[in-house]
Amino acid sequence: ASNVHFLDLKRPELAQNVTRRMVFFTKRYGFSGIFLKFDSDVLLTPGFEQFVELLDDEIKKEKKRSGMRKLRLILSISSNWVKYVYRRMPKFDAYFDAFYLWADEISSTSEFPIPSVAVPVDPLHNSELVPLKDSLARNAEHLAGSGVPRKKIVIGLSTWARSYFIRKNEELKTPEVESLVYSNEDSGQTDGTLGYHEVCHLLDSKNKHQQLHYDNRSETTSLIIEDQWYSFNEPEHAAFIHKLDWISNHEFGGIGLFSIQGDDPLNNCTRGLLPLHRTVGDRFKCRRGTKRGNLEQLGECTRLCFLDLEESRNSFAFEQLQPGWCSHMVIGQASVNPYVYSGPSKGMNLALKLYNDWERERKPFLIATASPTRFILIERIRHLLDEHNADGVELNCANGGLDGPNNAYQMNSFLADLRRTLGWKKQILISLNPISFVDQLNFDFANMVRSVDYIVAIGYRYHRSTNTHTGHHSPLFKNSTLLNQPKMTIQGTLEELIYKKLIVSLSAEAMSQHFVEDIYGTRSWESRRIGESASSISQNRIRAHGPGVVSQTQVCTIMKEATTISHFLNELGVPYLVNNDREFIAFDNSRSIQIKTVWLSLQNIAGIALHGLEHDNIAGECPEGEPFHLLKTIAQSQNPSSPELLENSDDEEGELTEEEKDLKAKKISNDQTLRCQQFDEFTTNFTVFCSLSLDNVEIDMLAKLPLKQCNVFLINNLAKLDEHGKTVENEKNKEKLEKIKISNDQTLRCQQFDEFTTNFTVFCSLSLDSVDIDMLTKLPLKQCNVFLINNLAKLDEHGKTVENEENKEKLEKIVSIANKKEKINLWGEVGCDMSQTQWERIINDRKREKTVAALNKLMTTYQLSGLLLDCDKFMRPPLRRDFSQFLNELNSELFEKDNEKENEKNVVDELMDCMPRLALKIQLSRKNISEVYEPEQLNKLLKFILLPSSIALSKAKAKSATILTLEQSKIKSNLIILELPTFAILQKREEEKAEPLIVTQKEVCQFIRKPGVQHHTRYDAVTSYWKTGEEWLSGENEQTIKYKVQYALQRRLGGVLLKSLESDDPEDFCKNGGYGLLNTVHTARCGV
């Protein structure tokens, strides 16, 4: 099976599977097309033609299925391979939208697939430096002459510089390459390519003696400094301009520029941002704003942004918005009264102009707000949308209008007529006040959802600035003594609603009131609280936004004043402030918005909206440098609703015609089975790790491990490295380790390992110390893709691994189970038991070999798929290079030892993909990953990076902060694994200083069944806890697990690790089928 390739004509099912996955992921991530870049010789194979035909069929099926624009398909061709493939290209014309021609680094005269002579970047014509076969012009014309339409040929140019050390040569032509020049910047390049920002300084005024050589025949530029040779495209240089003009004058389809990172994105060269891209942009102007809508991406969060520019405001910084922050931009308002002037207001015209001038390849859907007053306005609405090329309409019924008594029938008739007029290509949103949901006699929501795309519940008008007492306009929770009407909260509003198609709108707009004056002087302003009487007298502070309206920037500024005090109401989930002007301001901040976003995500509503975008610190004034900080919080905290909520049931078709039903069906998700299958594809690179501690597990339990629910098993403390670089194992765990041994067939193991890394991966960890050996045969194998043995061994100060002898039998049991089952990956966790100095000693150049050998012995003894190293606490900046080298040598040693026989069979290349078999646990307290690690080396040498669990509330936010730190350090997100504990911690109030007890899920169920137990969830930290008068218990529950798995999926993380599987109620005491939290992981993963 290892020799089978998806281009094999005898196995078309493999090619078909690949094409399906390609199309699915392309649509899933919202891309407009597929760029195929195969090794050039692949283009000559018969299997390539079959593959392209299958891919084209799959693209057509997807277009028919979704009703959306057909995916574009582009083929990449190396310039010096055109002479071999050009005859075949015309037959592919029907399948490809473009042929991307690029200049190869390897000269056509080279005998080897490595640079031997210095080829200038992007040679347009041949010259003394460039053979004719390598010129872009010759090959582009050759391709066009074969029958490929010119409009489909795209010429690819490069922003990267080529750089070599060359052999001494008195003449400039064709210098011979000696070696590569490596990047000094964090560009990730290791092949001699440098970014333009790394070479531009060579031409500074200080270096006038260094002359840029211009070959006007090939239109290339190069530079020699001693024994270093460089070639790059210089912005606005004649060579670069002539290439652009040639492409334009010869009517080719376009130009490609690779890539942004290779340009100067930070203006290091002081020539303006992205000078190469800017030069191309000045020469080639394209229509802006033709692509809209993040919702084309399957599973993208629905996130509405409302913008209503007042006439007094003359600007809005669209460019500060990130593309993924808003799925819809709702711009208001337009008048659609049929009897008087109809059209956009001045503010709407300004917003439309700014939106149209916004230079962004993909913009949010443009939704125009209309306030209808008559049902006959349907035609006016259609005209308004057509005139402004809007994607839909928001019917704002929050200010009266259609929101009146006894009009449920008229409303549904109006919406049905509007839907028939607009069809299903235009979106219809209807916004309603909270009172509309409390008194549902006015609306028939069950029928309303047949005609609209979304119902927007206004979640910020539960209190007004004109009320006679102070209150909050957007309270979340209903159980508070401050409330007279619990239903007048977001939670109360949603209690009896159909969540399908429901969006809750939050607001960036704060609300100001003033306390009644204390004429007797008995109250200090500091003692003022929410709920007290409010004055109707005009406010002391005059603001530009109108009475009672305060922006986020103004709130931030007021908070800095010494005469301001703020309070946070946990029972309502919102903050407010008071100041010595008798002013009361109710507002939302990042904490309250996060709480609301998490809570709403857990309710599985269709989406979240943010009203008053213009008030969300758009200029980044306060907080400084944080524009749109509330919107950003929503974007970072929101998880998409479950796919089933996007489906439409048969009984909702109502009075639609068959044609309308067919058109509507194109917007509906696939059936449940297909959806789960798609979710499996969507969860590619998401990994669930399971760790196992052989000290705590009984040997019989190893046969019952849930092998199919964990992608990786990690054996904790498998061994320790001693100061001599040797591994010291725990002899007591020998027998258990033998039980866990897997097949010696490296090819099969590599195949299995590749499989788990290309799927949503569930890792399950086991602590052998805590598990009975009989339980090992009852583990839920189908729900864990990988098993991790916790604390399998420890490295000692000699670099030896030390194992726990007491767990030998259990370890042998689980090794035996893994050896008998297919696709079971077993990992072991190795800790470090030594001092800081001893750690430095065992990974340095002199001792490293012994340490590597000890870990390799541990791997081969138990035939593990990988090792998780838990030694982060010893890492310091001086060890960065040593640790990278240690990982590199360890990976190489593991690879070489496992494949000595395969090396003789010349199949080394086939096994290279499974060479990284190491992982790293990083402390949540790490603030600067790049300080102690080399991110580019971690990306290359690790299979995953584990973030350990933290139940303590004080540390609850650390995990998301650490993820952000890792991503900012350029760590690949699909390497990051979240650890979710199955155990909980129990603290007795009378023993608050004592060490908390670790309890299992069985004990959790026993605890929560006690009389008087109260359950609470911290939504800002996504943690759950239960308490009585005497005890306090904190741990994961179904809601928090579900949110965290979906959080990881949404952010394309590598997976989750369910820690200590033996604590997850394997005996089903809780009566939920056993392994309740693991089952929740599976449910959240599939979205079912």
Automatic annotation (TrEMBL):
<feature type="domain" description="Chitinase II/V-like catalytic">
    <location>
        <begin position="301"/>
        <end position="616"/>
    </location>
</feature>
<dbReference type="GO" id="GO:0005576">
    <property type="term" value="C:extracellular region"/>
</dbReference>
<dbReference type="InterPro" id="IPR050314">
    <property type="entry name" value="Glycosyl_Hydrlase_18"/>
</dbReference>
<dbReference type="GO" id="GO:0006032">
    <property type="term" value="P:chitin catabolic process"/>
</dbReference>
<protein>
    <submittedName>
        <fullName>Chitinase II domain-containing protein</fullName>
    </submittedName>
</protein>
<dbReference type="InterPro" id="IPR001223">
    <property type="entry name" value="Glyco_hydro18_cat"/>
</dbReference>
<dbReference type="Pfam" id="PF00704">
    <property type="entry name" value="Glyco_hydro_18"/>
</dbReference>
<dbReference type="InterPro" id="IPR017853">
    <property type="entry name" value="GH"/>
</dbReference>
<dbReference type="InterPro" id="IPR029070">
    <property type="entry name" value="Chitinase_insertion_sf"/>
</dbReference>
<dbReference type="GO" id="GO:0004568">
    <property type="term" value="F:chitinase activity"/>
</dbReference>
<dbReference type="InterPro" id="IPR011583">
    <property type="entry name" value="Chitinase_II/V-like_cat"/>
</dbReference>
<dbReference type="GO" id="GO:0005975">
    <property type="term" value="P:carbohydrate metabolic process"/>
</dbReference>
<dbReference type="GO" id="GO:0008061">
    <property type="term" value="F:chitin binding"/>
</dbReference>
